[in-house]
Automatic annotation (TrEMBL):
Membrane topology label: Multi-pass membrane protein
Name this polypeptide is given: Heme A synthase
PANTHER family, per the entry: CYTOCHROME C OXIDASE ASSEMBLY PROTEIN COX15 (PTHR23289), CYTOCHROME C OXIDASE ASSEMBLY PROTEIN COX15 HOMOLOG (PTHR23289:SF2)
Organism per entry: Sphingopyxis flava
EC number(s) stated in the UniProt entry for this protein: 1.17.99.9
Length: 343
């Protein structure tokens, strides 16, 4: 007798895929927010009251006056018009709204599935952890914004990296869990996939590249050179400040961080190409082809971002493709981590 697939894990998997797409949308808007220098336009964290933007002229003026008190306005945007302020306010507001929407998109269906006892054994804690991670992400986002409200004209690149990497970790967790549930729908006795030692190495290499990318964004390091493969006619760029030691240079110097991000990308690409090769050998041709396509697109967009002098929409596409790469890599690593994985 033919076994019928379990519809409940399949529905849960589709739900998590939808939330993953929403996270990618948040990453996209986050990139626009950063590149338009909009992130400090909302100077307070109001998780509930902040859902609505200012609705009257007086409310807009009050928000603008709050922004005029911070260093970014005083040192960079002095004389900005109210209309221009509304433009940067929009992107930060939309970014925060989408973040809240991700939280609701996880919590409300999760509560529904729990009430209907539709969550498979062993998955409840993981789904709650993913929902909690959204709340943590919101707190990290405010922690990041707060770093630019008192003495700085921008946010800390360390906090920006924590904010972005937490979002990408959430994305990877959503994809991994969705894949586990999709397998469980077809194979009721299936066990969750495990991350092998070799797979953890791929994750570590990719993590370093994502961290360097976040630091590059936070320090505006993409602007220090607009040529490729050389940086201002040099392989190792001039202008690196070594005076405070190697560690501070690696973590704070925009020339060195740009250089490292540019060339570590080849290590990340090699690791992902080897992953694609292994996937192909295991019969996962679709995952292998998808990974190759996204890696090629990401490398090309990275080069274009540099040679266009950080064109906003190309840079946004670079960030979005990076998020898609995380999702595709997570799906590929999941396939390899399945017990007796086969298509």
């Amino acid at each position: 007798m033919t076994q019928v697939a379990n519809p409940r894990p399949a529905a849960l998997a589709r739900w998590l895929w939808a939330v993953a797409l929403l996270v990618i949308a948040v990453v996209a808007v986050g990139g626009i927010t950063r590149l338009t220098e909009s992130g400090l336009s909302i100077t307070e964290w109001k998780p509930v009251a902040g859902v609505l933007p200012p609705l009257t002229d007086a409310a807009w003026q009050a928000e603008f006056e709050k922004y005029q008190q911070i260093p970014e306005y005083k040192e960079i945007n002095a004389g900005m018009s109210l209309a221009a302020f509304k433009g940067i306010f929009f992107w930060e507001w939309l970014h925060r709204i989408l973040g809240r929407l991700v939280g609701m998109a996880l919590l409300v269906p999760l509560a529904w599935y729990m009430l209907r006892r539709a969550v498979p054994t062993g998955y409840g804690w993981r789904l709650f952890a993913l929902a909690a991670l959204v709340g943590l992400q919101g707190a990290i986002g405010w922690w990041m914004v707060a770093s630019g409200l008192v003495t700085r004209t921008d946010v800390s690149h360390f906090r920006l990296a924590a904010h972005l990497l937490t979002a990408l970790f959430l994305l990877g967790g959503l994809v991994w869990t969705a894949r586990d549930l999709a397998v469980l729908a077809d194979e009721p006795a299936a066990r969750p996939a495990r991350l092998s030692f070799a797979a953890a190495g791929v994750v570590a290499i990719l993590f370093v590249q994502l961290l360097l990318g976040a630091w590059t964004a936070g320090l505006n390091a993409g602007y220090v050179a607009s040529s490729w493969p050389l940086m201002n006619d040099h392989f190792v760029p001039e202008g690196i400040d070594w005076s405070r030691g190697i560690w501070l240079a690696i973590t704070n110097d925009p020339f060195l961080i740009h250089f490292l991000h540019r060339w570590w990308s080849w290590a990340a690409a090699l690791a992902l190409l080897l992953l694609a090769r292994t996937l192909r050998q295991r019969g996962a041709r679709t995952e292998a082809r998808g990974l190759l396509l996204v890696v090629a697109a990401q490398m090309a967009l990275g080069i274009l971002t540099v040679i266009t002098g950080v064109s906003m929409w190309i840079a946004v596409l670079h960030q979005v493709t990076g998020a898609i790469l995380v999702a595709v890599a997570a799906a590929g690593l999941h396939h390899l981590g399945r017990p007796h994985a086969s298509d």
